[in-house]
Amino acid sequence: MTLAIMQPYFLPYIGYMQLLNAVDTFVFYDDVAFINRGWVNRNRLLANGRELLFTIPLKDASQNRLINEIALSDEPKWRDKLLRTIEQSYRKAPQYAEVMPMAERIIRFQASNQSNVSIAEYCYHSFSELTAYLGITTRLVASSSIYENSHLKAQERILDICRQEGAERYINPIGGVELYKPEPFAQLGCELRFIQSKSVPYPQLGTTEFVPWLSILDILMNNAPAATLELLQQFDLV
C-alpha cells in the first residue's frame, strides 16, 4: 500500500493532485498548526490572461490553532463573489459547462448541521467532489479522525501513521528531501520516495504564454477528465 500525507489545501495546484492520484491512501493532515498566508485557504486562477490570487476568508485564523479548529468566515457574500470571479474568468473555457456545477457545489458547501464548517472539512469535501469527477479511487482520510497520535511530532508522527496503515511505500513532495531520510522508514518495511512534478503546458484561456502551477480548477476548465488524468501522470519519483 502506498501512502501520502499532506495538509488540506483548497483547490490546489497540479503537484498536489499528482501526489493524491499516485497513492492508495491519502491522509489530510488536518490536526496540525495552521500556517498564515499558506495554501490551505488560498490559490490562484487565471483571469484575463493573468494569475489572480483568491482567498477563502476564515474566522479567527491563527498559527496557534489547528487547521480543523478554524471555521470559515460568517461573511455572507464571499461565496457569491468567488463564484462570479470563476464565471467571469472561465465562462468561455471548453469545459466550463461540465466543471462549473461542481465548482458551485464545492464553494457553496455547508456543514450538515448548518453551523460554520471548518476549513479542513471544506477542503475534504472539495476533494470528494474532485476525485469523483475524475474517477480517482484513492482512499481519503483525515488524520484527526483515526490515528490518535497527535502527541507525536514531525517525522515520528509520520512514521506512526505509516505503521498504523501498514504502508509499504511513503511518497512525500520533493521539498521534504532534506527533512526525511530513508532509514527510519526502511525499519518499518516502508520505502521512502519523493515526487517531483513536471510543468506540462496545456492550452489556457486568454493567454499565449503558459502560466504554470495554477489551481486544479484552471486545468479542469481547459481539459476534459481523460486529458487531466494524463497531466496527473507527469511527474518523477526520486
Overall geometry comes to globular
User: What is the C-alpha radius of gyration, as a whole number of Å?
Assistant: 18 Å
Give the CA-CA distance, first to last residue: 18 Å
Q: Taking all residues together, what is the mean pLDDT?
A: 94
Q: Helix fraction?
A: 25-40%
DSSP strand content: 15-25%
Number of strands: 10
Q: Please provide the ordered H/E string of secondary-structure elements.
A: EHEEEEEHHHEHEHEHHE
Reported for the largest beta sheet, the result is:
6 strands, mixed
Multimeric organization: single chain
Uncertain segments are none
Output the strand order for the largest sheet. Answer: 7-2-1-8-9-10
User: Which structural class matches the secondary elements?
Assistant: alpha/beta
Overall number of structural domains: 1
Q: What's the helix count?
A: 8
